Amino acid sequence: MNHCDIPTHFIKKIDKKSQLLKKVDIIPIEVLVRNFFAGSLSKKFGVKEGTQLSDTLIEYCLKSDELGDPHISSEHILNLGLCDFDELELIDEYSLRINDILRSTFYSIGINLVDFKLEFGICKKTDELVLADEISPDTCRLWDLKTNKKLDKDRFRRDLGNIEEAYEEVLNRLNLTI
Ligand code: UDP
């Protein structure tokens, strides 16, 4: 993402399990970016999972384990002072650009990006808004383009089994090593 002009908290990889990151104040919202109906959106509107949305949809949840991460609107975010208007505009802009990048990357390896979650933070040193999250099968819905096989955390959530194989398949198709 850094190479695509999306500033992130990532500085460098230290080893298999560690990364050096910029220190940020996390904005306490989860940004959900959706291309297809699935999960909570399907349940809420009674629309079959896998139905394409007419346009990319951005939703927000308040990061609060106590409250069960409730869905909130942009008005809630601004009213509660979770971030300011300009920051929210930038969050939306980055989220849509990240979606474009990820969608085409996954499409090129035969995977449909159904939806994903992002978090952002303000860099303590520079005051810059940065993406401050992992992007992985834990935080995305990734379906095989041909078979619709789930290659993401829903294998765990829905007790479908073979979760490690699915994650490895994504890794292999991306031609990445950890
Ligand atoms: N998601 C996540 N962490 C969360 C909530 C959602 O990574 O705490 C991801 C989830 O994996 C999916 C997308 O955000 O790719 C949209 O999730 P949804 O609201 O449908 O959540 P569900 O209720 O189905 O977990």
Secondary structure layout:
Layout: E1 10-15, E2 18-21, E3 24-26, E4 29-36, H1 39-45, E5 52-62, E6 71-72, H2 74-79, H3 85-108, E7 111-118, E8 120-123, E9 129-131, E10 140-144, H4 154-157, H5 163-173
Antiparallel strand pairs: 1-2, 3-8, 4-5, 4-7, 5-6, 7-10, 8-9
Bound molecules: uridine-5'-diphosphate (UDP).
Uridine-5'-diphosphate (UDP) is lined by residues 30, 32, 38-41, 69, 115-117, 139-141, 153.
Describe the structure.
With 178 residues, the protein is of the alpha+beta class. 29% of the residues lie in helices and 30% in strands. The protein has five helices and ten strands; from the N terminus they run ββββαββααββββαα. The strands form three sheets. It has a five-stranded antiparallel sheet. Strands 3-8-9 form a three-stranded antiparallel sheet, with helices on one face. Bound molecules: uridine-5'-diphosphate.
Count of alpha/pi helices: 5
How would you state the average pLDDT, rounded? 97
Residues in helices, as a percent range? 25-40%
Round the Cα radius of gyration to an integer and report it: 17 Å
Number of strands: 10
Low-confidence stretches: none
Can you summarize the main beta sheet?
5 strands, antiparallel
Alpha-beta content class: alpha+beta
Taken from the alpha-carbon principal axes, the silhouette is globular
Pattern of helices and strands: EEEEHEEHHEEEEHH
- Tell me the distance between the termini: 18 Å
Report strand %. Answer: 25-35%
Instruction: Provide the spatial order of strands within the biggest beta sheet.
Output: 6-5-4-7-10
User: What small ligands are held by the chains?
Assistant: uridine-5'-diphosphate
